[in-house]
Design goal:
Shape: globular
Structural class: alpha+beta
Distance between the termini: 47 Å
Largest sheet: 9 strands, antiparallel
Number of strands: 13
EC number: 1.7.3.3
Radius of gyration: 24 Å
Function: Catalyzes the oxidation of uric acid to 5-hydroxyisourate, which is further processed to form (S)-allantoin.
Number of helices: 5
GO molecular function: urate oxidase activity
Family: Belongs to the uricase family.
Pathway: Purine metabolism; urate degradation; (S)-allantoin from urate: step 1/3
CATH topology of one domain: Urate Oxidase
CATH superfamily of one domain: Urate Oxidase
């Protein structure tokens, strides 16, 4: 019997980063959980116990903190992830691919009566939700260190939403196993996991000796910027499309609403190739009060509910640009 190593990837995960960017008294902040994994000519570290090809995971952590301090792109998770991945692939000759995942925690400015800026307080923030932005980047140098390709997927995890009406579920397939009652009015709640994938991009290889340079090729207002991975308004548009469509759609099913949300994101962002959602049902079951001669089951009269965590439906789909 023989066996061979067919895939290998390693790196550092759960690198926690908090960064303040100061512009006079005006402060911007980000908080990230970073994972950076490497691929390349590293097989002998597994098969021959050869550590000479291993960039230590502690070094990967140190590089993450170094670029968190020095990168001008730290406030954009997409750009910072691309910068970090480009550094690894460019710095180390035997590393051909880098995979960087960033989870961004929410911080919003506190608003104070009489403050100078409509954007909020200059240096005070609060956590305004448990949902997180997630960015996944692959920087591929397999074709050559001067032919770097970036692949970016971004999105939202754990965005909890609920509407108390405007949702129905009727005319579904019925057979001897179907016990679910059809309803024309129900609570619709889910925890949104959204991801959208951009078209692959060419990345300019750094020209400086230490390989820390990273060039953003498109700036706001230039042709091709709008809706691209460089467009810093894409995350807000995707979030807005998700929330607004969820709110106003007279939902015939979770599937139908999901499709409308994804269609809007593709339509509004020219470089987004595909959109995926995972929408688990958060069930709210009307409490049966008939033993007290109280109607709490008729949809129009249902007002007291029991939240149920499991089991739950899970609706997923990917919508792709033609």
């Amino acid at each position: 019997m023989s066996a061979e190593l067919t895939a290998a990837r390693y790196g550092k995960t759960k690198v926690r980063v908090f960064r303040i960017v100061r512009d006079g008294k005006w402060h911007n902040i980000v908080e990230y959980n970073v994972e950076a994994l490497l691929e390349g000519e590293i097989a002998t570290s597994y098969t021959e116990a050869d550590n000479s090809v291993v960039v230590a995971t502690d070094s990967i952590k140190n590089i993450t903190y170094f670029l968190a301090k020095t990168s001008p792109h730290i406030l954009s998770a997409e750009k910072f992830a691309l910068h970090l991945g480009t550094f690894f692939v460019s710095k180390y000759a035997h590393i051909s691919k880098a995979f960087v995942t960033i989870e961004q925690l929410r911080w919003s400015r506190i608003h104070v009566d009489g403050e100078e800026s409509a954007e909020g307080h200059s240096h005070s923030f609060y956590r305004d939700g448990n949902d997180k932005r997630v960015v996944k980047v692959e920087v591929d140098g397999s074709a050559g260190k001067d032919k770097l390709v970036g692949k970016v997927t971004a999105g939202i995890n754990d965005l909890l939403v609920l509407k108390s009406t405007g949702s129905a579920f009727e005319n579904f397939y019925r057979d001897e196993y179907a016990t679910l009652i059809e309803v024309n009015d129900r609570i619709f709640s889910t925890s949104v996991d959204l991801s959208y994938t951009f078209a692959p991009i060419s990345l300019r290889a750094p020209t400086d000796e230490k390989k820390v340079e990273f060039v953003v090729p498109l700036q706001k207002g230039e042709e091709g910027y709008a809706g691209s991975v460089w467009d810093e308004e894409v995350p807000a548009r995707a979030r807005k499309a998700t929330l607004e469509t969820f709110a106003v759609d007279e939902s015939a099913s979770v599937q139908a609403t999901l499709y409308k949300m994804a269609q809007r994101i593709v339509a509004e962002n020219a470089s987004v190739n595909s959109v995926s959602y995972a929408l688990p049902n958060k069930h709210y079951i009307p409490v049966d009060l008939r033993y007290l001669n109280i109607d709490n089951l008729t949809p129009a009269k249902a007002e007291v509910f029991m939240p149920v965590d499991a089991p739950s439906g899970l609706i997923t789909a990917t919508v792709t640009r033609k």
